[in-house]
Amino acid sequence: MSVQQTLVLIKPDGIAKSLTGNILTELSDTGLILVGAKIVQVTRELAEEHYQHLSEEKFFDELIRYIMGEFHVKRVLALIYHGENAIAKVRDVVGATNPEQAHPSTIRGKFGRITTKGVFENVVHASESEKEAEREIKLWFRPGELIQTIYPVESRQVAKTEIFWKQEKK
Ligand code: CDP
Ligand code: MG
Q: Which atom from ligand 1 is nearest to the alpha carbon of 97?
């Protein structure tokens, strides 16, 4: 066993069905620590990069539309969990990819479905391996968005315009 981190996405069907609280409760029961969280509007670019390894699959186009929220709402909740054996612990509570095959005690078994079009609406994503977790976390988050440093970082000097909350005139 080793200390790991894993990326979880509450997919648009999970958000649309108000399952966020239930899912967070199940994930919290793993005892893992939440080290990053944010709500994201998924662009086509991010979706295609995230699922790049599935680009040859016949369900790829539907999958991209699904994760972008075209069938539900245009947002996902991205979470990073950290701790001993985090990848397997999260995959265990998440359940099998096919929601009809997922054990009824798992998140996908409880809340997932297959649409009449055959699209798996399986509520959450969870990283599959340490390598994939690292790739996915680096794709979805910037180092400063995490409450602890889990991968090596470097600083670079960049010139950029930042957005701030507008100050009230007194
Ligand atoms: O998400 P997981 O790692 O369990 O499965 P995957 O094989 O990495 O597939 C990624 C996602 O593609 C799944 O979570 C489903 O949303 C979707 N998928 C699908 O719609 N139909 C399939 N036969 C397999 C996957
Ligand atoms: Mg996967």
A: 4
State the SS3 of 27-78.
HHCCCCEEEEEEEECCCHHHHHHHCHHHCCCCCHHHHHHHHHCCCCCCCEEE
CATH architecture of the domain with range 3-145: 2-Layer Sandwich (3.30)
List the 76-84 sheet strands across, edge first: 33-40, 76-84, 3-10, 124-126
| This prediction's pTM | 0.96
Contacts of 71 (CB under 8 A, 6+ apart): 12, 13, 65, 115, 119, 121
d(CA 83, CA 56): 33
Instruction: Using the mean position of ligand 1's atoms as its centre, give its distance from the Cα of residue 1 in Å.
Output: 26
Per-residue pLDDT tens for 28-61?
A: 999 999 999 999 999 999 999 999 999 999 999 9
Task: Quick: pLDDT tens for 67-115.
Answer: 999 999 999 999 999 999 999 999 999 999 999 999 999 999 999 999 9
Note the ligand closest to the C-alpha atom of 123: 1
Query: Which of 50, 82, 103, 125 is labelled catalytic?
Result: 125
Atom 13 (ligand 1) nearest CA: 97
Q: Where exactly are the structural domains of the chain? A: 3-145
